[in-house]
Write a structure and sequence with these properties.
Length: about 300
């Protein structure tokens, strides 16, 4: 027994050390920091007129109604623009959690449009740090307004315009988010040879959270090659400010903007109003989300 006791103690110590090693390995595996993705950088898929970094989740359909009234400086006879209106309807669907697509129809130039938005990067921290979220946006627009001169040779391709954007956003904290939007617009037909077919612009937008359900938003697009010295009609950089109001399944946006159009090829290249002269349109966006395909429930742990 005296000889067996030391051997037994040595055996217990070796088992204890082995168990400690296994426990340390397990703790090291679990100590790897989890990846935390930024959420709700913006409350809607739009900042104001332009797209935000947000997209519809897989299986969810967004029915959007956008409305812009006439100019506030039109006077009391036009009820400060409320007698006039332009409207756009849209259906936007999340195909996957990183890809969404949408179609729409607007009364401005009787335009049909379609787009896709693809998530490339997601802002994250923790085990994997990505400083910004990045998405790619591409759209096509078809004008269907009647030709001013039906007697001349008119081509279907002349009705088409294309837009491409890179959406780069960062949520700085729980209160403030910011986005830069390099943009390119190509128009197959322009009013005159002095008007550029290709437009390059840089958009900047932000969101300041005021309460859990209300935020103040603003966006501005600077168009680099719109020279009013030569163009057939002066155009100006679009500026929009307003508020997001979340009410359950709705996101309601109140907007003041100098642009009447609500799609990229319009508000980037065809904004004719000036804020300093009161050429401001009041309007709103209403978003109603429907779940068409629910995600499968995770299996319970045994």
């Amino acid at each position: 027994m005296k000889r067996a006791l030391p051997l037994f103690l040595i055996f217990l110590m070796s088992v204890s050390l082995s168990a400690q090693d296994d426990l340390m390995d397990l703790l090291n595996e679990n100590s790897e920091e989890a990846v935390s993705f930024a959420t709700a950088t913006f409350k809607s898929t739009r900042i104001m007129n332009g797209h935000s970094i947000e997209r519809m989740p897989s299986g969810q359909l967004d029915f959007r109604i956008s409305h812009r009234f006439g100019r506030l400086n039109s006077g009391a006879y036009e009820f400060f623009g409320l007698d006039q209106s332009s409207i756009h309807f849209g259906l936007e669907y999340g195909i996957t959690d990183w890809l969404m697509a949408g179609v729409g129809r607007g009364s401005y130039e009787k335009t049909f449009d379609g787009f896709v938005k693809l998530s490339v990067l997601r802002q994250s921290s923790g085990g994997k740090t990505v400083p910004v979220s990045v998405s790619f946006f591409s759209s096509v627009a078809l004008e269907t307004v009647k030709w001013p001169d039906p007697e001349r040779t008119n081509y279907f391709s002349s009705r088409l315009s294309y837009s491409s954007q890179l959406l780069i956003a960062r949520k700085l904290n729980k209160t403030f988010s910011f986005q830069l939007t390099p943009s390119y617009v190509h128009r197959n037909l322009v009013p005159s040879e002095l008007d550029p077919n290709d437009l390059w612009a840089l958009g900047a937008g932000g969101r300041i959270k005021l309460t859990n359900r209300i935020s103040m938003n603003a966006e501005y697009y600077y168009v680099f090659n719109a020279d009013n010295t030569y163009m057939s009609q002066p155009v100006y950089n679009p500026l929009s400010v307003g508020f997001d109001i979340e009410t359950g399944g709705h996101v309601f946006q109140l907007i003041f903007t100098n642009s009447l159009s609500m799609i990229e090829k319009g508000f980037i290249g065809e904004t004719t109003g000036q804020w300093l002269k009161g050429d401001v349109h009041f309007g709103f966006n209403i978003s109603r989300v429907f779940t068409l395909k629910s995600k499968p429930a995770r299996p319970e742990a045994p």
